[in-house]
Write a structure and sequence with these properties.
With about 260 residues, the chain is an alpha/beta fold. It has a single domain, classed as NAD(P)-binding Rossmann-like Domain (Rossmann fold). About 45% of the residues lie in helices and about 15% in strands. It contains 8 helices and 7 strands. Helix 1 packs across helix 8, helix 3 runs parallel beside helix 4 and helix 4 runs parallel beside helix 5. The structure holds nicotinamide-adenine-dinucleotide (NAD). Nicotinamide-adenine-dinucleotide binds next to helix 1, helix 4 and helix 6. The site of nicotinamide-adenine-dinucleotide has 28 residues, from helix 1, helix 4 and helix 6.
C-alpha cells in the first residue's frame, strides 16, 4: 500500500502553478508531504494550493527561478518555515517559440536556456547544500523526451532539456558519497497547455493537428496525464527509490522505446 509514505517530508516544488507541478503537489500531499510551492505566477500558485489538505501546511512563494537572489530566498524561506528540504522537484520550464533554427529569435533562445537550464542549476546550487547538511534528500529535475531525441522547431527547448539530463547526471555523481539522490523525469506528450502550444505551433497552416496524427508515434496511443508524471516523481522522492540516482525516467507511453 502506498499510503502516506512521505509523511512529514518537506517537498519544495517549482513550476507548481503549472499542470505537472500542480498534479505533483497534490499527489505528494496525499502521500503525507508538507508542501512549498514556487512559481512566478502568484494567482496560479494560489489556485494550485487551494485544495491541498491542511496536513500539507502549504506555503506559496512567488519567485522567478532565473533570479539568483529569488532562488536563494525561496530555499531560505523553506528551511526557516519547514526546517528542511527533503524532496526538491525542480520543474519550472517554458517551451519557447516553435520555429526552425534560421527563424528562431536569439532572445527567445536565451530565455529558454535561462529558465530551463539556469533555473534548474540555481535550484540545485541552493538546495544541495541544505540536503548535504541533512545528509538526506531527493532531487527530481524535469527534463523531457526532447532531452533524449532531436525535436525540430523546438531546438532551444530540446537543447535545454538535453542540458537538464547532463546536469542531473553530473549532480548525481557529485552526491555519490552522500545520502542525496538526483534523478530526472522525461515526460512525453502530456495532455496539457504546453503540449497544445507546441502542437499548434507545429501545425503548418495554423490548424490544430488531428489527435491521430499527434499520437502516430506513441505506442500507448493516448496522451499522458500530469498525474502519471507525478506518480513517477513521488516514487523517486520516496525511500523505495533509495538505490536510484543519476537516472532519467521516461513517462512517454513508449514513445522513445524504439
Ligand atoms: N506538458 C508536457 O507535455 C511536458 C512534456 C515534457 C516536459 N515537460 C516539462 O514539464 C515541466 C512542467 O510543464 P507543464 O506542462 O506543467 O507546463 P506549464 O506551463 O503548465 O507549467 C510551467 C510552470 O512554470 C512556471 N514558470 C515558467 N517560468 C518560470 C520562472 N522563470 N520562474 C518561476 N516559474 C516559472 C510557469 O508560470 C508555469 O506555472 C516543464 O519543465 C516542461 O518543460 C512538459
Amino acid at each position: 500500500m502506498v499510503g502516506r509514505v512521505l509523511n512529514g517530508k518537506v517537498a519544495l516544488v517549482t513550476g507548481a502553478a503549472g499542470e505537472i507541478g500542480t498534479a505533483t503537489i497534490a499527489l505528494l500531499a496525499e502521500r503525507g508531504a508538507r508542501i512549498v510551492a514556487v512559481d512566478r505566477d502568484a494567482q496560479g500558485l494560489a489556485r494550485a494550493i487551494r485544495s491541498l489538505p491542511a496536513s500539507a501546511e502549504a506555503l506559496a512563494i512567488t519567485a522567478d527561478v532565473t533570479r539568483d537572489d529569488e532562488v536563494a530566498s525561496y530555499v531560505e524561506q523553506t528551511v526557516a518555515r519547514m526546517g528542511s528540504v527533503d524532496i526538491f522537484f525542480n520543474n519550472a520550464g517554458i517551451e519557447g517559440d516553435i520555429k526552425a533554427i534560421p527563424d528562431y529569435p536569439l532572445d527567445t533562445f536565451r530565455r529558454v536556456l535561462d529558465v530551463n537550464v539556469v533555473g534548474v542549476f540555481l535550484g540545485m546550487k541552493y538546495v544541495l547544500p541544505v540536503m548535504y547538511r541533512q545528509n538526506a534528500g531527493s532531487v527530481i529535475n524535469t527534463a523531457s523526451i526532447a532531452g533524449l531525441i532531436g525535436s525540430p522547431q523546438i531546438a532551444a527547448y530540446s537543447a535545454s532539456k538535453h542540458a537538464v539530463i547532463g546536469l542531473t547526471k553530473s549532480a548525481a555523481l557529485e552526491c555519490a558519497n552522500t545520502n542525496v539522490r538526483v534523478n530526472c523525469v522525461c515526460p512525453g506528450q502530456i495532455d496539457s497547455r504546453m503540449l497544445s502550444s507546441i502542437i499548434n505551433g507545429l501545425a503548418p497552416d495554423g490548424q490544430p493537428l488531428p489527435e491521430s496524427k499527434v499520437l502516430e508515434r506513441t505506442p500507448a496511443r493516448r496522451l499522458g496525464l500530469a498525474r502519471e508524471v507525478a506518480g513517477v516523481v513521488a516514487f523517486l522522492a520516496s525511500d523505495d527509490a533509495s538505490y536510484v540516482s543519476g537516472s532519467s525516467y521516461t513517462v512517454d507511453g513508449g514513445r522513445t522505446a524504439s
